Amino acid sequence: MIRAVTTPAFDGVAEGGRGGHEAANEVISKTGALMPAKKLSETDKVQAVLDLIQAKGTMAEICNRYGISPTYLYKLRDRALEAVKVALAGADKRDLSRERQLELELSRAKQLLGDQALVIEILKKTT
């Protein structure tokens, strides 16, 4: 379980040898390690997911590089994969829509051609 905590500023040395730092938001990981809570930019989120997918390091290395927990990285990955599925499904629909549009145009062209052939046939019979 990961929970966010706010650490107060200390005048002296705090437990674990820390001291004299400003109050900051930090995250306690599953292992109990204190990690700074940092807001990732969209670019960093995308890059972290790409690093994971392309196996550019272990899970721990990627999490440490971006200062995030494994749970959060998996959540980002799942969101990214869902977005890819939606985008691909939309592309298929656009392709089908374009195909349908072309079929309608072809149908109209065939109708027009048939009408013209009928008019030509009628004109031949009357002259």
Question: How much β-strand is present in the residues?
Answer: 5-15%
Sketch the topology as an H/E string, one letter per element. Answer: EEEHHH
Which geometry do the CA atoms define? rod-shaped
- Number of E-type strands: 3
Describe the 3D structure.
The protein has 2 domains: 1-37, no CATH class; 38-126. 61% of the residues lie in helices and 10% in strands. It has helices at 42-53, 59-66, 70-126; strands at 3-7, 24-28, 34-36. A 3-stranded antiparallel beta sheet has the order 1-2-3, with no helix packed on it. It starts with a strand and ends with a helix. The model is unreliable at 1-24 (pLDDT under 50).
Provide a quick synopsis of the model.
The protein is mainly alpha-helical. 61% of the residues lie in helices and 10% in strands. The protein is built from three helices and three strands.
Give a topology summary.
Blueprint: E1 3-7, E2 24-28, E3 34-36, H1 42-53, H2 59-66, H3 70-126
Antiparallel strand pairs: 1-2, 2-3
